[in-house]
Amino acid sequence: MIALTQSSRARLVAGLVASIALLAAAPAVLSDFRLLLLAKFLCLAMVAVGIGLAWGRGGMLTMGQGVFFGLGGYLMAMHLKLADAGPGGVPDFMQLYGTGVVPAWWEPLRSGLVTLLLIVVLPAALAWLLGTGVFRRRVRGAYFAILSQALVAAFAILLIGQQQSTGGTNGLNGFRSFLGYDLTDPVNHQTLYALCAAVLIVMVLIVRQLYRSRWGELLLAVRDQENRVRFLGYDPASVKITAFVIAAVFASIGGALFVPVVGIISPADVGVTASIGFIVGVAIGGRASVLGPPLGAIAVAWAQTSLSENFPSAWTYAEAALFIVVIAVLPAGLASLPALARRVTHRRAGEATAYAHGTPAPVEGSL
């Protein structure tokens, strides 16, 4: 079994503590606008944590996480629209584009409790059905990636075509409250940010515990030697399905919190481009580490928001170049930089010691 060394555990704990400290200090140093912007990045990081588990640990390139992000987002948005309309009321966009009657499948979402349950249960059920149909038939690699991306493309087209019930291309927006709290109150903005930060921290801790568990070791073994794991009597499909379901639930929760933070959810937020963006952040941060995926997602989202303001046409090329450079030079992502720096330092220290004792340093590649 593979276990973290004592120094690795210490560095991971130090990274977690530093990240929590930075998140706690953010409300004191950021403006209300910047704080909500950071909360948005945290929601995207929640999706990245799940992708890190499924792709980094399990080897499943999940390019369709926009489906689960969109399910959580639209479920929450539908509830908020119904809450703003009042008991028995009709959302404003239905009066403009629809028949003025709330569809029957919207009605259960008037309850906040039902909405929260569906945000977890519905993506989990869909991921289980999809995972069972795919992994039981041993579909993997590029075939699974293409299938998941086709699914998210179909989902976006479906949302666009249902203008009367989903808002079409415009999506759902104009929310005034979130679970009874006024979304225009700056105090509630801080509460919403704290909720996003707390949820992200819990997700990271859950994934860290899963990595250290026997199931986490089995998931890693399935990624590297699936046939051998099957030969030993385990069911690789069940392991993969579990990881896929967890990643789907994380993405759905991130989408649900994204809606009150940003104030809108549309097909552009859940389509193919958005799903690829999730993958880019995870790859740049380091998909196989615990903190790499969320930190990478936050960094890419921040860079996109900041640089696109000054270089709106060039940012896309810069993002693609960064992705290519990281994959080519640092396949393990930016999270591998500390380990690389330590290896370089140890090598230089060894060369210096050998030189001081009059022994020539070994030539790389020699016996």
From TrEMBL:
Protein name per its UniProtKB record: Urea ABC transporter permease subunit UrtC
A Pfam family recorded for this sequence: BPD_transp_2
Top-level division of the source organism's lineage: Bacteria
PANTHER family noted in UniProt: HIGH-AFFINITY BRANCHED-CHAIN AMINO ACID TRANSPORT SYSTEM PERMEASE (PTHR30482), SLR1201 PROTEIN (PTHR30482:SF4)
Protein keywords: Cell membrane, Membrane, Transmembrane, Transmembrane helix
InterPro entries named in the record: ABC_transp_permease, ABC_transptr_urea_perm_UrtC, LivM-like
Compartmental location: Cell membrane
Topology versus the membrane: Multi-pass membrane protein
TM spans (from-to): 12-30, 36-55, 67-89, 109-130, 142-161, 192-211, 241-265, 320-341
